[in-house]
Design brief:
Length: 187
Amino acid sequence: MASTTGTKTVIRFSNGEDRLLRKRRRIIRSVVVLVVATGALVAFILVMGDLRRYKVAMGMVDLYVDQVSVRIRQQRELPIDLSLHADKVTDAFSAASKNIEWLTRDEAWLMRQSDGPVMTAWTKPVHRRFLEDGRAVVFFEDGALQSVWLTPAAFEEAEKKQAAELARLNLEAKKAEREVATQPDSP
């Protein structure tokens, strides 16, 4: 046997500690990756739900646009009756009619004299988790219907503009009625 004089023998007891530390790091890394992946998956599912809500709302107003557009193709003016009347009532159309509000006959009659866009129909507010809430809205302009998505602030602004226009047109109509009533009948 060879002599071992002058050599140092080092015994390490940290071998198990190093393995334990590496194992802990691996577990922590796996947990972090799992949490991040789960968060991304939940966010993806919520965004897809928001997009689905948008598509459903826009689909409802598109059904409305299709039905009313049939009536306005020849006249190219705002119809008086804007409520939904389907040639063939379907389940989707029934659901759409429950979730859409539209101008009344009197409002539509007055808004025929308006020279700007007229908000004819709108859905109830659509609440979303990540994306901004809003409504699907149908505007009548230049003889055609167009469906758009409006945020709550934009819808409120459009509603205020339309209310002001309705008030102005109503005032003009009443003034015209008074003028007709005060004119003497000519023989």
